[in-house]
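Journal club prep, notes for RB
We'll compare a predicted complex against what the paper describes. Inputs for the NG6 case:
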Amino acid sequence: MMNKRSLNLLPCVAVLCSCSLPAYAGQSSKKEKKTKPNVIIILADDLGYGDLECYGTTRVHTPNVNRLASEGIRFTNVHATASTSTPSRYALLTGEYAWRKKGTGVAAGNAGMIIRPEQYTIADMFKSADYTTGAIGKWHLGLGDKTGTQDWNGTISPALKDIGFDYSYIMAATADRVPCIYIENGKVADYDSTAPIEVSYQKPFEGEPTGRKNPELLYNLKPSHGHDMAIVNGISRIGYMKGGGKALWKDENIADTITSHAIRFIEENKERPFFLYFATNDVHVPRFPHERFRGKNPMGLRGDAIVQFDWSVGEIMKTLDRLGLTENTLIILSSDNGPVLDDGYLDRAYELNGTHRAAGPLRGGKYSKFDGGTRIPFIVYSSALKHRGVSEALISQVDLYASFAHMLGIETREDSAVDSQDRYAALIGEDPAGRSELMTEDLSCGKMLRCGSWVYLSPSEGAPYMPFTRIETGLSKDPQLYNMDYDIGQQNNIAWDYADQVEKMEKRLQEILTSESTR
Ligand code: NG6
Ligand code: CA
């Protein structure tokens, strides 16, 4: 394989000649440093289409996100590419649908690095435009060369610096998976040499308590399904770990810790353009927000986690305001997949949910093939916006790579970001339509194709309902076709009435699945 360092991104000569470019493209490099906008992607975890006040909920207040929405553009038809985290994030960062690559299902905490060093990422693209790049928060895309071979007590390699991030401060996977430590630039942060770290997804460590054997030690949260292995901070997790000592995180401080690192990154890079991928732990399980966010909404811990997320957004905004960077920073706020109430802990999310509709009017949620799985909140905030308000443009998160490349006057190589379409005009409110089609996938890799108002769910094996999470998966042996113009809740399968349309969409789906690019 060609070394990616030899695949330098080229200035987009054709674009420079043929269409209008943003003010910051094609200027002298000294000037560029001042005028290129900073870009921050704030990516929430499992935050649903209906979970924010500006998307319709009245059960929890999210004033900081409201500010972004009211001064920016709130999109109503933007999609993550998958209804779980790993494939969704893979696509966002590489500009390539995750089904093109094996091993992109929900990753264990000791998975090897899924995006390989020779691949180009959105971070590489920003770096080639002289940006400083950072990734802070949830990672969930593997680390190190191979599953289970990481040296948690030394340097983990490859790591994020090998895929374009100058700085990283991350959680290896999710808060419900070991190891429960932060990794800063490839090394465990606040490493405690008196407590060497061992991680296994195969077997428990002798003498270490587990949630299954020692439920009396679960003083913070108990599992409702799964999550009964290693115990850290009075919460049992997926996978086994030993050691960690003072490096172990406390769940109630995760938002504070990662937000303060994001703030520091912004402060340290205030003089030069930066790209920050800020991936919050909220509102994924285990939901255990800081005490100061508790009890201010009727929905219990899940609602508190939404409040905590909103606080993190507010802190980022305050920092930009304080440093005079707000004007020259473009913010995207979104989520990696749809919502779930009970995702494995007894946090009473289901019982206290009341009238709140985490997926808004959409059917299904996290894991599912219905729109609730992948249609997510998406807000763009920037001084470059041509219009403000609401946009119905159809965009996929996979498009961010090519769209920002366009913004910077850079052409992506033929062999990278093969599914990323330049939708910059839609992102800044110039184009109200966006894509003509897009594809998404569910937990079991079942595919959905959307063309205009038609949504086609290809037939797949599996249960239509996940009993623990109480989510409709959208799986069915029969083809499903919905017209979103009058059936946003996907209640009426009209596949039998429009057999021609089904045939056309199945054919198109197969074409995409055997294509090398959809760019
Ligand atoms: C599931 C976990 C769930 C969550 C999910 C990944 C169990 C029973 N459930 O397997 O809690 O971790 O994986 O979520 O273990 S995601 O948002 O990171 O994709
Ligand atoms: Ca997620």
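Talking point for the session: The mean pLDDT is 94.
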